[in-house]
Amino acid sequence: MSSQPIEVAVCVVGAGPVGATLACRLGAAGLPVAVVDRAALPPMEHPDFDGRAYAIASGSRALLEQAGVWAELPLPSCPIDDIHVSDGKPGRPASKLFLHFDHREIGMPFGWMTEARSLRVALNATLHRHPTVQVIAPTEAQVSRTPQGAVIRTGDGRTIHARLVVAAEGRDSPLRRQAGIPVTRLRYGQSGLVCAVAHEWPHHNQALEHFLPGGPFAQLPMAATEGAPHLSAIVWSERDALVDRLIALPDAAFAREVQRRLGQHLGEVRPIGRRWMYRLSALHAHRYADTRLALIGDAAHGIHPIAGQGLNLGFRDVMSLSDLLIDAHARGEDVGNDLLLRRYQAARRPANLAMLAATDLLDRLFSNDNPAIRLARDLGIAGVNRMPRLRRAFMQAAMGSLDAAPPGLARAADQPYLPSE
């Protein structure tokens, strides 16, 4: 291994969907970038279908197109043309008061369902295609930061000099801990169950969000795959103990439990691929930056999946940070300077905090069986459905085109981060 240091503008630690997309976006703009990850990142992979998929909002798709990733997707994505929101109980008909979002009112889909394996293949291929991006994996990274710059030493003996390090290692980010950045955590006593089901009748690109006492149940339309011409993803939140039982059920029994919550509009269902279980919690870092360090994605925030916006929030971090870095690089400025990091934090922290608060409130409002609260929320759902302007605002939020925060939060975010506090 050569002892010559690798000189880059940005070193991204963590090559999950958010970190890899940032590296691809910067690489597409010509910035020298290193990506370090514990896992191997071969240029192409051919994993089997595993039932996981991402809901990619409209704004996130535009980012993936800019980064050169969208064109590399090896499998088709399914547009989400309509979203039906209802309230009810397992095994019973949904409330007659509902909310329906129709893509024809806004002229485009709300988003696209993309298989996780397809996005991984596209990201890996794009990372290796950009000439200014160096992929260093699998290896560990030891990071030292000073006001003058950062030095990253890898487990395979390489040394990287960078102006900025980006922590994209997930909720248990070692770089965040190293920087002494505190976090606030909220635990829900719920688990998320993710899988895919084949069904008898077509979904017509419609998604269902069904609010149940144990948590939200979502059916999201997917493109056909081999042996399953009609396919949907299921994202299902329930109390921890029940999910522990559901995950272990035989396929036939599990299909019956899905059917009790989904209803009969798609006909008979059968599970395909694996079932995945995640303990649900929310997390928010008290600041998004430190000396020569920026946090993005789950390293900075995590929210309840009730609105399906977790990954899209990470992609919005990428949009904000990449715009700032590309502009600074074009001006010949230091891409790790404190002012740039303060601007990034001011752009993202209040919006992410507002989304965390909104999803937390939605879960507390909808994941219960109090009759008075159920009546109030059913009337609220129906009221929004009857108010076109308000309904369109909700549709824009579902597309990822709204990113507002209360004015007080925006003012608080203008305060500078304090390095090494």
Please state the overall shape, judged from the principal axes of the Cα atoms: globular
Q: Would you identify the regions where 5 or more consecutive residues have pLDDT less than 50?
A: 401-421
Mean pLDDT: 86
CATH architecture of the largest domain: 3-Layer(bba) Sandwich
Alpha-beta classification: alpha+beta
Summarize the helix and strand pattern as letters. Answer: EHEEHEEEEHEEEEHEEEEHHEEEEHHHHH
- Number of helices, counting only DSSP H or I runs of 4 residues or more: 11
Q: Helical amount among residues, as a percent range?
A: 25-40%
Q: What distance separates the N and C termini? A: 37 Å
The CATH superfamily of the largest domain turns out to be: FAD/NAD(P)-binding domain
CATH class category of the largest domain: Alpha Beta
Q: Domain count, please report it.
A: 2
CATH topology of the largest domain: FAD/NAD(P)-binding domain
Number of β-strand runs: 19
Beta percentage is 25-35%
The description of the largest β-sheet is: 8 strands, mixed
Radius of gyration: 22 Å
